[in-house]
Inverse folding.
């Protein structure tokens, strides 16, 4: 093994968003201090293990939570340890996620100086009502300010996140957000259809009847319009949820879709060594304890040959790479592939299968068709 | 057996509505007579099948023999015969009652008398059983014994002070109840010197012993080694073993007139040991069997198919095994274009169908689809040939048919007078022909109708229950055939006829049926990758249509921190969900669709 990516999770937020089902918690100073120590320790331990020890880093990503809440000293210390522990080329992509409501110039300057060269800003929407419904801590105006601060700190690779399919959102209000994002001269855009995760505020609201279920037809319409606008703006739709200007596709993102190994450190972080997937505890206190008593074992799964194929199918078809025809033929019946091609849910080029952009939102359905067509499995 | 004399025997059953505490009372009786020490941890001993415990109904009859010593030292044998409790099994109930001299009428102190209870009380009175009236659940705060006592007095015409009050749950009053059974239920007639006659009230299949019949010795003495014969089939067998039904079988030297127990002969299947049949002595036969026997006769037919066509062989095995235990189940192989290989099966009624389906799924781990049930039609061809059709697919071409006849039943609906109006309306909707109304007493009327069986099998019983707030009850018996105008209604999915959804339906009802099925399917069939057109057609003439719009989004976009595992698990879950779907033509239809289109909204 040669290349792998590094993901560092920072599980703290100022406040939990209403849709967020991920491992995050409200910031707590003493826990954050212990957490920082645990991260340093885990990186040191992992860097002495295979396959990471002999590998080369291809990207580094600080995700969360809200990693932009980390002090510049903490980031610098982490990056120093990473530098000492791993080898990587000088032009490596180093991303940090930032919340527009927790972005100050001093920190951005420090991040930039420490070697972070890509910023992923969780804008989510440019409509203040929608932001409020989502439970975000910032306004639309904060997004402009954050991007401006980032630019003046020297960031020239900026990505924004937007959410669509929000109850009450219209096609128009979403497109306004898309245009506002483009007006900021960003290099990359990630867009997510809202999904209601268990145990979130939104799930509770739907239960009480104070929020309606996201409308999948609305989301589909928003998505199709989004695709048009992004094409006109010169962005390449390289993965279901991601658009980039030429040369600005996220190296880190590709790691996941191309099944390149990655090491995840921190609460709930997932790792993949090429065969085995393993992950840390979802609870931060448990995670800290685990790092300090590594003999306690970890949760993992060793992929069967079939599961590996299965993963290749649904991960490859998410991307503009598409899926090798040979893999599709191994896992599904030729009738199923033929039927999907005839009905234009798939197209083929150079011995690869692709989901056409306008059908990408049906990906799971298409994958299920492929996976259930072979009686052998 | 143990030298018991008929005058020491009490044969009785318990008549109760669902949840009125029959099984709990049975548990107390078993404890008090010392048959078990405590039923704690395994309550409701008499309901064998999980299905019975869950549904709170008894599907098969059971029996248990208990020894009881009175405070004065006199010894008795109490035979409790448990009865099934649904109109589908009315015949089986009547056979169990015929084996008893008394019935404990058990009524919930807060719920009061319910319809099912009434129907069974009348049945019991028809067999001259002595009724021991009991109010149960006196421990409840909501108990209203005074009211309930009046209902009981009204129902059976007893004296108010004869009604016992108990709590089967905590045991209060149960010893007094046993005393009352011994005091009031008559001992069986002493017919020791008469030729042997045994009434079969149930039979089970045992993997090692073959068919085991549960019997009441009506007359004579039964001993192992005798040669006996079954009246309905003429089959002759040597008696291998006789005995009592304690918690397990308990072999005995003999069973005498009045006793309840079991008999094992060389008979290999329960098709021979038919409920209601009479067993006689080959050496000393009586020419006439006991009265009341009926051939097991399916009323309702449906196709049973494995959801996964690969499971056909397993279904075949399972049906054969279930049939050993259930003589009323009939089936033959059937092939459907949509569903593949399966079995056309005959059932006593819809509940029986549901039970068979559930037992096959649970006990044999199968996943089944069952098609819309229908009755059997008698078809006279222009050529004069007569056919019996129980499968829409076998209907001959219309031009060759002279007449179609459908089975007609005499239906009796027992109801408080308040509900007569709505019940008459319902019965008329169901093509019922009104005959007359009788009043059993001022609070209970019996409506007599002639009605096509086809109209009863769907949801008539459920509708009757709901519009009478549970009070009305139904009984019916087959009364003959009548000419009808019946059509075959086809359902098409994206232009393709789905044979498994075709039904035979009365011409006047075809439009309504078509509309209803199309609407139901449009709600049940999930959105798919393409639009689905659902149509109902008679002779390729479309009478109803609905559309399921194409699905536009099904993707889990977010992939938090590289958690690919979660994605695969969610996908696996969706894949499992797809397995509950049946491909009909190119359309995925949930299996539940087949049963759901039967139920009214």
């Amino acid at each position: 093994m040669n290349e792998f990516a590094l993901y560092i999770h920072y599980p703290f937020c100022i406040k939990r968003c209403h849709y967020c089902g991920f491992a995050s918690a409200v910031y707590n100073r003493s826990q954050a201090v212990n957490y920082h120590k645990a991260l340093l320790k885990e990186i040191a331990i992992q860097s002495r293990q295979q396959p990471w020890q002999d590998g080369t880093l291809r990207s580094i990503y600080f995700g969360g939570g809200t990693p932009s809440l980390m002090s510049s000293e903490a980031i610098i210390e982490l990056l120093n340890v990473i530098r000492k522990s791993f080898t990587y080329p000088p032009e490596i992509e180093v991303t940090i996620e930032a919340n527009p409501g927790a972005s100050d110039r001093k920190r951005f300057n420090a991040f930039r100086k420490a070697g972070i060269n890509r910023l992923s800003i969780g804008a989510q929407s440019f409509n203040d009502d929608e932001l409020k419904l989502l439970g975000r801590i910032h306004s639309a105006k904060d997004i402009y300010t954050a991007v401006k601060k980032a630019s003046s700190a020297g960031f020239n690779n900026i990505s924004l996140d937007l959410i669509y399919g929000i109850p009450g959102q219209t096609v128009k209000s979403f497109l306004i957000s898309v245009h506002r994002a483009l007006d900021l001269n960003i290099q990359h855009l990630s867009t997510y259809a809202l999904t209601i995760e268990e145990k979130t505020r939104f799930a509770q609201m739907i239960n009480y009847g104070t929020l309606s279920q996201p409308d999948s037809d609305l989301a589909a319409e928003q998505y199709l319009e989004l695709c048009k606008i992004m094409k006109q703006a010169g962005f390449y739709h390289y993965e279901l949820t991601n658009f980039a200007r030429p040369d600005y596709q996220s190296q880190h993102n590709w790691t996941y879709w191309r099944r390149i190994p990655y090491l995840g450190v921190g609460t709930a972080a997932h790792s993949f060594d090429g065969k085995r997937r393993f992950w840390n505890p979802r609870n931060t206190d448990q995670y800290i304890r685990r790092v300090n008593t590594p003999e306690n074992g970890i949760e993992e799964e060793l992929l069967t040959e079939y599961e590996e194929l299965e993963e290749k199918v649904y991960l490859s078809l998410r991307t503009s790479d598409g899926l090798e025809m040979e893999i599709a033929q191994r896992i599904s019946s030729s009738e199923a592939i033929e039927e999907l091609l005839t009905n234009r849910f798939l197209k083929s080029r150079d011995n690869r299968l692709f989901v056409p952009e306008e059908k990408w939102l049906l990906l799971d359905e298409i994958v299920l068709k492929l996976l259930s067509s072979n009686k052998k499995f | 057996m143990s030298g018991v004399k008929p005058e020491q025997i009490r044969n009785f059953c318990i008549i109760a509505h669902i949840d009125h505490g029959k099984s709990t009372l049975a548990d107390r009786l078993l404890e008090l007579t010392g048959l078990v020490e405590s039923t704690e941890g395994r309550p409701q001993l008499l309901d064998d099948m999980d299905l019975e415990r869950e549904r709170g109904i008894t599907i098969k009859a059971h029996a248990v023999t208990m020894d009881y010593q009175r405070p004065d030292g006199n010894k008795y044998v109490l035979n409790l015969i448990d009865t099934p409790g649904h109109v589908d099994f009315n015949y089986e109930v009547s056979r169990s009652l015929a084996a008893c001299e008394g019935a404990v009428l058990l009524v919930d102190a807060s719920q009061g008398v319910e319809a099912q209870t009434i129907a069974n009380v009348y049945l019991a009175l028809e067999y001259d059983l002595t009724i021991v009236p009991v109010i149960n659940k006196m421990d409840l705060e909501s108990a209203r014994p005074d009211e309930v006592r009046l209902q009981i007095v009204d129902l059976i015409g007893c004296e108010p002070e004869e009604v016992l009050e108990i709590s089967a749950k905590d045991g209060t009053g149960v010893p007094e109840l046993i005393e009352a059974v011994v005091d009031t239920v008559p001992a069986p007639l002493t017919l020791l010197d008469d030729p042997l006659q045994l009434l079969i009230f149930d039979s089970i299949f045992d993997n090692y012993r073959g068919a085991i019949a549960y019997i009441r010795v009506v007359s004579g003495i039964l001993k192992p080694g005798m040669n006996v014969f079954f009246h309905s089939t003429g089959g002759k067998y040597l008696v291998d073993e006789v005995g009592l039904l304690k918690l397990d079988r308990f072999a005995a030297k003999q069973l005498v007139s009045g006793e309840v127990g079991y008999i094992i002969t060389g008979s290999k299947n329960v098709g021979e040991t038919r409920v209601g049949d009479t067993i006689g002595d080959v050496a000393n036969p009586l020419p006439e069997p006991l009265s009341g026997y009926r051939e097991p006769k399916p009323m309702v037919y449906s196709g049973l198919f494995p959801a996964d066509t690969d499971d056909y062989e397993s279904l075949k095995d399972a049906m054969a095994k279930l049939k050993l235990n259930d003589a009323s189940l009939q089936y033959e192989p059937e092939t459907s274009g949509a569903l593949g290989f399966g079995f056309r099966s005959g059932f006593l009624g819809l509940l029986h169908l549901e039970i068979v389906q559930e037992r096959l799924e649970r006990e044999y781990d199968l996943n089944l689809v069952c098609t819309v049930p229908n009755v059997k039609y008698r078809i006279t061809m222009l050529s004069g040939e007569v056919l019996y059709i129980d499968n829409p697919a076998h209907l001959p071409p219309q031009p060759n048919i002279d007449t179609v006849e459908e089975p007609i039943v005499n239906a009796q609906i027992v109801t408080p007078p308040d509900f007569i109006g709505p019940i008459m309306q319902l019965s008329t909707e169901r093509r019922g022909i009104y005959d007359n109304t009788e009043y059993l007493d001022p609070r209970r009327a019996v409506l007599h109708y002639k009605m096509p069986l086809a109209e009863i099998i769907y949801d008539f019983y459920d509708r009757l229950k709901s519009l009478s707030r549970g009070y009305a009850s139904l009984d019916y018996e087959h009364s003959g055939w009548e000419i009808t105008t019946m059509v075959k209604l086809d359902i098409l999915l994206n232009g393709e006829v789905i044979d498994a959804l075709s039904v035979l339906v009365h011409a006047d009802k075809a439009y309504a049926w078509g509309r209803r099925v199309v609407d139901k399917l449009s709600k049940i069939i999930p959105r798919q990758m393409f639009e689905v057109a659902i149509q109902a057609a008679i002779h390729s003439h479309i009478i109803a249509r609905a559309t399921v719009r194409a699905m536009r989004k099904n993707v889990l976009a977010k992939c938090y921190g590289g958690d690919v595992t979660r994605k695969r698990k969610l996908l696996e879950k969706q894949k499992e969900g797809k397995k509950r779907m049946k491909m009909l033509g190119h359309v995925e239809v949930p299996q539940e669709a087949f049963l759901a289109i039967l139920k009214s909204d």
